Protein: Xyloglucan endotransglucosylase/hydrolase
Organism: Morus notabilis
Amino acid sequence: MGSQFQRRTTLCLGVLLVMVSGTMGAAPKKPVDVPFGRNYLPTWAFDHIKYYNGGSNIDLVLDKYTGTGFQSKGSYLFGHFSMQIKLVPGDSAGTVTAFYLSSQNSEHDEIDFEFLGNRTGQPYILQTNVFTGGKGDREQRIYLWFDPTKAFHSYSVLWNLYMIVFFVDDVPIRVFKNCKDLGVKFPFNQPMKIYSSLWNADDWATRGGLEKTDWSKAPFIASYKSFHVDGCESSVNAKYCATQGKRWWDQKEFQDLDGYQWRRLRWVRERWTIYNYCTDRVRYPSISPECRRDRDI
């Protein structure tokens, strides 16, 4: 981390933090990439997952019969989770590639990346969402500033007691702050598993379902590598992590974005955001409490 310090008021927690400038999205040391089987296992359609390089790379395959997916072996309460993905190339309309964290109960917490396929020549849409206490409907959508089908790019989540941050190649594209003081639930006591899947969602994924999956283009393939997990592993019934406050993501410099990251986030909002539930007065006539505060960021 850099040596220049700056101060910023943490808006949702009301705590004045001393921030260290630098790139908060990456762990203090280079993440260690491990083979798929170290932390993950297939969950369905096992024959639609292809393995390469000793399991360090995998492909998920979708055809007219089925898609496929995988999940982490462990459940985690806070941490930093990332993987590199190369999305389905060409005409991918109707397909969804998902990477998300989710708890295992009815009032579930969930942190979503969903990549919505396109007709050839149209850009992919990245949709993010956050569920807390079983409530979602917090969609935000952006266009990416690169072609995500040409090369691998890193997609990651930082989750601690203070905030959830979505990153694309270490650029923060969304922050969901802990706003419990406003009555907004925040995921803090339900461990989550990590999931990814490739599936057909042509009833809604591309232009609201107007563009259907062209099965003559199948099989559709999404490629993965660099399966990085740095979280506090816990049982699904645990309420608190035994190492809470002792891991790098709990430290002060990771409790808010630094100035450079806030500028990058504003760049994403101003140039690449195409939908934000916070500004949708048709679906949500009343502004959500976290949105009212978010406008002041």
